[in-house]
Amino acid sequence: MTDTPKPQQGTWTLTAPDGRTWQADSPIACVRNEQRERVPAEVALQRIKAAVAEDLCELCGEPMPPGETMFRYHGLSGPCPKPRAAVQTTD
Fold first, then answer.
1. Which residues pair with 56 in a beta bridge?
2. 12: region left, alpha or beta (phi > 0 left; psi from -120 to 50 alpha)
3. Where are the domains of the chain?
4. Rounded to 5 degrees, what are φ and ψ at 71?
5. CA neighbor of 61 nearest in space, from 37, 41, 87, 26
6. Rounded mean pLDDT for each run of 10 residues along the chain, 91 residues in total
C-alpha cells in the first residue's frame, strides 16, 4: 500500500467567484475554512443528524427494517405495523 502524497508546501489560496479568498496550509483546509464561513454550525449539525437519523415509513411513521431503507414505506416485509398516520387535508 502506498502513502498518500502530501500537498505541496506553502500557503494555498481558494478564491470564490465573488473575489473572497481563504488561505491555509493545504487545499482541504482552504475548503474547510470556506465551508465554515458559508454554512452555519447549526445547519451543519442538523445535516449530520438527518443523515444518521433512523429511516421512518412515510405512511405509518414506524422504523423501516434493514433492506427497506431505500424505499419510503413498508412493503417487502409486509404491511405497515401501525395504521396509516393521519394526513391533513384542506377542503
1. 63
2. beta
3. 12-52, 54-86
4. -100, 165
5. 87
6. 78 93 92 91 86 76 76 74 63 55
